[in-house]
Amino acid sequence: MVGTSLVGCQDPLCLSPTNQFMPSCRWAKVFVFDRFLLLNFSDSRLLMLRIKQANPMHSVQDLGRYGFASQGVAKAGPMDSVAACWANSCLGNAVTLPLLEIGGGGFVAEFTKDVNLALTGAWGEMTLDGQPLPGPGAHPVSAGSVLRLGRFSSGMFSYLAVQGGFAIQPVLGSVSTCQRDSLGGLDGQGEPLSIEDTLPYQTAERRPVNLIPRRYLESYHQPLVCDVILRETDQFASDATDLFFNQGYKVTREQSRMGYRLDGDLSIVAERPRYSVPIPLGGIQVPPSGQPIVLMRDHQSLGGYPMLGTLTRKSLGQLAQRRAGQMVSFRAVSREIAVQEFLQYRQFFGDFR
To answer: Which CATH number fits domain 224-349: 3.30.460.10, 3.40.50.300, 2.40.10.270, 2.40.100.10?
Structure first.
């Protein structure tokens, strides 16, 4: 039996009814309980990954929190969902199991029991007990082994999964960390990982391990061409779409889990709409500056800037892996092609969002 207790807002400045769940309010509290799934951390079958070094870009994620956008709750989930799916898939896990998103490197952890791990996505100075890991994929780990992820030479986000998955309590159906909403993560309150955190994982029969075939690996050094589903709108000048597709953009340092701001030589002229509208994951907004913003995993649910279109899910993950200064351009694709690509990935991994 699963239940959720919602405590109303106690902020006198908040206009929401006291019995309404308002996740954007700092006083709203969520208590999730499940008498069958509550974790017993004293259970000897649950083993621990001990965090020895971390930064605010390290978090617990799964494929995301769906069904709550109307209440202002972000989907969250991995910035690069394809790389995250690979991490679980190459261990034989369901792709929906919790894993760690490690942004920017600087991660050290110790394993307390033998297990298979998988690392995918961004790559660089990756060592296990001081020995360099050969590449993205699955690797055997012994009790007491120390994993170090130093500076990334390619990409922004790496994904760490263990065979059998991490055992973490979900909030609103997901463990995904969203600091903006104060939801998910190890403590359920949206906090990133920190030193001395311990993440339980369950024992599982260890399978043979393999690296991911090279034909499936992304190259994050190359200039990126993103696929865009155009949005029909009369809020832009007549030459806006031609201008958008015929120039390159540089990824700026204004990068976060909420959005990536881009910078092009020529600005796009758009009128500000009269009211806010729902905005999708991967939406391309154009603020008064005329320089696009691509909405990422923790984006707000409503926005007032005009929107040119939406990135496909694959392109969104590829953009997430680009660093400040790298070049990006765009091309239009039909909705039918984008849906077909999405269904192919979902079929490939067994489940995919």
So the answer is: 2.40.100.10
